[in-house]
Every structure is written in structure tokens, then in C-alpha cells.
Amino acid sequence: MISQHIHKEILLEYEKLADDAKRKLELKKEICYRKCPRIKEIDDELNTTAIKLSKAIINANKIDKDKYLEEIRVLTENLKLEKKKLMKENGFLDGYFKDVYVCDKCKDTGFIDNKKCSCYKQKLINKVYDMSNIAEIIKTENFSSFSMDYYDKEIDEQNGMSPYENMKYIMRRCSIFIEDFDSKFKNMVFYGDSGLGKTFLCRCIAKELLDKGKIVLYVTAKNLFEMFEKEKFNKDDEQIDNQILQLTKEADLLIIDDLGTEFITSLSTTELFDIINSRILLKKSTIISTNLSSDEISRNYSERIVSRLYGEYEMIKFFGRDIRIIKKLKI
Q: Which of 50, 112, 192, 260 is 20 to 30 A off residue 79, Cα-Cα?
């Protein structure tokens, strides 16, 4: 199981977030009430009304209760309408008192109905799998910093188009993948020689979906299968993170980078198939990048894996000159 100190660190972070939210809310109230004292009067009256409502439910008989509840309902609605009107007139936008939270879904508690919020699961990924490194990388490696200048415009005879046109096509596919993420189940394999931007684009997509509040697990194939080996052979190691391995199947998006760099064994092949197949059944999207050619993928992996990849994934080929070499030559 995951070591307890990691959970404690995360819970302490939520405590800090809650304290920060409380301070922000008090400050916003102070600004708002100072500008329009009537809004404070309404909030005070709404709080008093809630207390009266609780007492009425407990003490009143049914006839009196129904009448009183209706009176409270009308009063509450009128107060809320008046408050909304005053907020707008005084320049306070809708959600003025709500935007104090980092995660509006769980109100920075980490839990919704005693279940971990998606933000908690992402924090778990960040803590245990060192996603903080990725978080730093995607500050610079994202769509805003992506450049088409490194792709040749001359036609590649073997592929029937230029690397430049191919990359324009790939960028469109990536944009569509992100735009349709909530409505259409898609998977992609980026394949081709090294230094063509596959990993860069994986990180670009990761950033866009992280910004949308999705749970994204980004992992290299080598590290992923090392985790599976540790789970199998070192069951008593408290640092083994079964919850992270579970998220390989449950995360909104799983990115497996550099497939083919792992040590291919019967265990890794079995686990890879299990991940791919489970995510297909759960309709959870996956992106895989690899320097292997399509022929090498077929030779290195089992028929079941190859069948799933070619049947359920969009195979996107990268070709052209190694960008890292081009950058070095320009220095």
C-alpha cells in the first residue's frame, strides 16, 4: 500500500488550501459589504432564516410547518434575487464568492461524498510518481511554444507529403483529440524515429487536459513496467503504489511514452495488454509514443496487443529530420 506520509502530506495541503480559501472569502466579503452594506444584511438574514427553518422542521405541527416553510421559501427566494441584483449593480460578477477555491468540485477538501475527488487523485499522481517534474516541463513544452519551423517543406517521396504538411495534419488530430475528449473516445499511437516531436506533443496534450481538470497519468514505458515488477516481487515494500497502478486503468488519460525502451518480458507484455484492454472496455483514452516502426511494433509485441493497437488506436506516423540535431546545428 501507499505509504501513509504521502496521504498526510496531501491532507495537509488541503488544510492549507482550506485556510487560504477562508481568508480569501473573508476578504471578498469585507470588500463587498463595505461597498454595499445591504448585501451583508441580506446574508445575515439568510443565515437567520436557515436557523428558523431548522427549528420549524423540528417543532411545528404539519399544518403550521407547511405554511411556515412556504413563507420561508418565498422570503429566501426574494432575498436571493435582491442580493443578485445588488451584486450586479455594484460590479460583482456571478460566482464572486465561489472563485476562492482551487477545485470548485470538492471546495478544496479533496473529497466528494466521502470519495476522493479527481484533484486528490491527481495530487496522488504528482506525489508518488513525481509528476512534479512533468509539471515543470509543460511550463515550457506546450502548444504555445511548439514551432513548425523545424519541419521540412520538401515532399518526402516515401510518405507522399512533406514533414511540414504531416505535422500540420498531426497538430489538427491533436486539437480534435482535446476538443472531443469529453464526447468521443479516442486513442492514438505516435510512432516514428526519435527527435521528431512525439514526446513534446504528448506533453502538450497532457498540459491542455490537466488545465481542464482531467486526471492525467504520464509515464515512460520503462518506469511503468518497473512498477509492475516491484509490485509482483516486492509485495511488502510500503513504497509500492498500488493506487497509482490502479490509475493506469482509471485515469482520464494515460500517456505511455517511449514504448519499446522497456525490457520486454512475459510479465510486461501481459500487463501492457491488461492496461490497453481494460482502458478500451472502460472507454478511457490512451496515447502511446514509440520510436519503433509499425513493423517493429508487430514483431516485438504479442498478436493480442498489436490487434488492439491497430484496431482501437489511430496510428500516427512522424517522419522527417531529427529536430534535436537541427537545433544543435543552429547554435
A: 112
Q: Assign residue 108 a region (left: φ > 0; alpha: ψ between -120 and 50; beta: otherwise).
A: left
Let me know: does 158 contact 252? Beta carbons within 8 Å.
no
At CB < 8 A and 24+ separation, what contacts does 114-123 make? 118/213, 118/214, 118/215, 118/252, 119/213, 120/10, 120/14, 121/215, 121/247, 121/250, 121/251, 122/210, 122/215, 122/216, 123/10, 123/13
Phi, psi of 127 (to 5 degrees): -70, -55
- Residue pLDDT, tens place only, 135-148: 677 777 888 888 89
pTM of the model: 0.67
Domain boundaries, the chain: 4-109, 129-330
What are the pLDDT digits (tens) for 153-204?
999 999 999 999 999 999 999 999 999 999 999 999 999 999 999 999 999 9
Provide the mean pLDDT of the chain. Answer: 85
> Of 317, 272, 312, which Cα lies nearest the Cα of 294?
317
pLDDT exceeds cutoff 90 at 128: no
**17 exposed, middle or buried (CB, 10 Å; 0-12, 13-18, 19+)?**
buried
List 316's β-bridge partners, or say none: 190
**Cα gap 248→225, rounded to integer Å:** 11
Beta-carbon contacts of residue 106 (< 8 Å; ≥ 6 apart):
112, 117, 119, 120
Amino acid at 315: M
Q: How far is CA 289 from the centre of its chain?
A: 19
Give the residues across from 219 on adjacent strands: 256
* 190 neighbors 288 (Cβ within 8 angstroms): yes
Q: Are 164 and 151 in contact (CB under 8 A)?
A: yes
In the predicted structure, residue 229 carries a pLDDT above the cut 50: yes
